Amino acid sequence: MTTVRQRRGGRVTEGAEDQPSEEKNVKSDGKVLSDLTGGKLWNILSITLGGIVAIGLGLLTSFYVATLHENDLWFSNIKEVEREISFRTECGLYYSYYKQMIQAASIQQGLHGLVYDNKTESVRTINILERMNVYQEVFLSILYRILPIQQYLEPVYFYIYTLFGLQAVYVFALYVTSWLLSGTWLSGLLAACWYITNRIDTTRVEFTIPLRENWALPFFAVQIAAITYLLRTHLQPAQERLTLLAVFVATFLFSLTWQFNQFMMLIQALALFILDCFDMLPTAKVTWLYIIQISGLLLVCVLQFFNSMILGSLLISFNASVLIARTIQKNLKKGNLFNRLGKLILHVLLVSSLTLLVNKFIKKSLNLESDEHIFKFLKAKFGFGSTRDFDANLYLCEEAFGLLPLNTFSRLSDTLLFYVYIFSLFPLTVAALIVAFRNLSGSNQIQEKAEEYTITLKPEAAYNLIHTVLFGCLALSTMRMKYLWTSHMCVFASFGLCSTEVWRLILKCVHLYTSQRTQMIKYSIPIITLLYISYKFWPGIMDELSELREFYDPDTVELMNWIKSNTPNTAVFAGSMQLLAGVKLCTGRTLTNHPHYEDKHLRERTKQIYQIYAKRSPEDVYRILQSFGTDYVILEDSICYERRHSRGCRLRDLLDTANGHIMDGLGESEPDLKPSLYPRFCEEIKKNLPSYTLRFIRVFQNKTFHVYKLAKYK
After folding, report:
1. Is the confidence at residue 560, as pLDDT, over 80?
2. Which helix (H) or strand (E) holds 696?
3. Which tens digit of pLDDT belongs to each residue from 603-626?
4. Sign of the C-alpha dihedral, residues 604, 605, 606, 607?
């Protein structure tokens, strides 16, 4: 009994002795619970505030570009014909299909007119939905017709406000991507501010509204944000499935709205391929991204009536080749350093060979030649022999397809963007090289040494690093593509400046690392940068918003009004691609050629039409124009007497070279070129010589344009 009592007493005593400790634990647990609740509440408040800031900045950006557009043109006050003329070159062509759908008697008739179009290219019936990426115009026109807004909003405003609204989506996606990478919405705020203050180099939406890239790039930014989230570790299966769906939808919309989608996604696929080879991304997720790219593009192919250019794209051939090569080389990521390097080299050669073979087989089977001008241009651009090909030289001589001008970097440096970008790029690139070498070697010793660097290169950071490097190379080589790089530059620079991992790596390298110092720098430097940007650029933005200008192009307005009043609706017009897009939009007349250049027959037709600016006889020009059913031809002094380009790059020089004729003006010519037997057509026709007046009757002229009607001559 004593023993029992002692045990009971012992238990009671132990309980009595432990009671204060239990109370202490309860208090401690309560404190932890309180801390956890407070932390969750703070996270919810932070996410809510960050989301509100993101939406607000997106809407402000939309308002900003819309105001700039209005102030630049006085768009609300000018006539309809002036509004339409402001949609220059191919922009006018795309908008004309929106206008055509709006004016159609019914949606069905509008769609029929696009599928069986005989006004865009004379003496040919083409399918606009197959040839061009205009589903966005179709969707928007249907939406305008079914919504009860016709009495309150003109069709043109519904169109341009939609494009300006997409800028809000664009900025929101950039903001979210930067936030996901850095873990703080301060990074997103900085990315959005850089996008706005570097507007000249990040977007051109305010003066090229219907351009395909202005539709596509917001969806591309959403896709990058979704991929960034997808590559995070420890995602729940439901989260992963929803993110894959978001990636697919964004990829599909991006592909549907821009004809150059396949080339942009090919670069993206190369980024995934490089990272997967070095084992820096989860293979399963990379496989899903390859499949999403292929399926998204094939779905667009179906919607575009099995567009042959999509089927013959390098992207489909490359992605299919990667998936095939993987099944052949199953043990690619096993072995020591030299073993893996050998396998990797073999894998790259296998994928490259398969891509070329598959692509050549598809193009041979389907007889595809739609994109051959792009490869001719690339071949000449990168110095693989000179060319006299008219189409390739037409691209080579355009400033937009030249190298990125150096003054771009001075503008980007004014906002500190370029400096911060390089500051972020260097340590992350070094970390990437270390991690790649560690992954290839598989050495424990090297892994221990590289452990501190691993945290700076999470899969999502690795993807965005290689993405910005590859698209940077594209922008440096082709100025027109800089908008793909500069917007992501804002994301990457703000991520680097607000990243705990980047600052930890830098401070450890200089032996100054402490957790408190890292946190202080992570927040203080971005805030100082934001204050600097606001102080320096806010007055300029306000001045820009208060500057008022007005659209003024009386010669083109006079020409369009004359065409509408003095020519039949069935009249066929020939001229430059850029001008004819405006003719179709403003007057609805039939064209011989237009600026959407992704068709071999159209390229050949355009070269023939452009003989009006070459050294050809009136008989030859008349015969060419007649073969395309031409009723009127428009000659432009700005092309005939062009001074914008130097000798060798003027349109008349490109035609002379392609025709084997010596160019005008002082300078050397290739030895096998010969003088033409005839004077330049566009100059000689103005002299009213009998050989010209028999075939061409001048019916309109002003300071810029000369319109000639083709006479009935045998």
Report:
1. yes
2. strand 696-701
3. 999 999 999 999 999 999 999 999
4. positive
What domains can be seen in the chain, in order of their start residue? 37-162 (no CATH), 163-546 (no CATH), 554-710 (3.40.50)
* Other C-beta atoms lying within 10 Å of the C-beta of residue 375: 11
Residue in the block written with tokens 């027109």? 480
**For residue 494, what are the CA distances in angstroms to 83, 205, 442, 482?**
38, 23, 33, 18
Residues 528, 12: Cα–Cα separation, whole Å: 63
The DSSP result for 224-280, as a single string, is: HHHHHHHTSSS--HHHHHHHHHHHHHHHHHHHHH-TTHHHHHHHHHHHHHHHHHTT-
Higher pLDDT, 620 or 447: 620
Looking at residue 674, what DSSP letter applies?
B
The pLDDT value given to residue 48? 93
416: left (phi over 0), alpha (psi -120 to 50) or beta: left
DSSP 403: P
Residues 555, 243: Cα–Cα separation, whole Å: 52
Tell me the pLDDT tens digit for each residue of 353-391: 999 999 999 999 888 877 677 777 777 777 776 677 888
Q: Do the beta carbons of residue 438 and residue 446 sit within 8 Å?
A: yes
For residue 600, which of 294, 375, 396 has the smallest C-alpha distance?
375
* DSSP at 208: S
CB atoms within 10 A of CB 58: 23
- Residue 80's CB: how many other CB atoms inside 10 A? 10
Q: How confident is the model at residue 9 (pLDDT cuts 50, 70, 90)?
A: very low
Q: Which residues contact 186 (CB under 8 A, 6 or more apart)?
A: 498, 523, 526, 527
Dist CA 57 CA 39 (whole Å): 27
Considering only the C-alpha atoms of the chain, give the largest distance between any 2 of them, rounded to a whole number of Å.
139
More confident residue, 476 or 374: 476
According to the model, what pLDDT value does residue 38 have? 66
- pTM exceeds 0.85 for this model: yes
Residue 630 carries which side chain, given as an amino acid letter? T
Task: Give CA–CA dist 580/133, Å, rounded.
Answer: 19
Q: Among 6, 10, 669, 32, which residue's Cα sits nearest to residue 388?
A: 669
At 354, the amino acid letter reads L
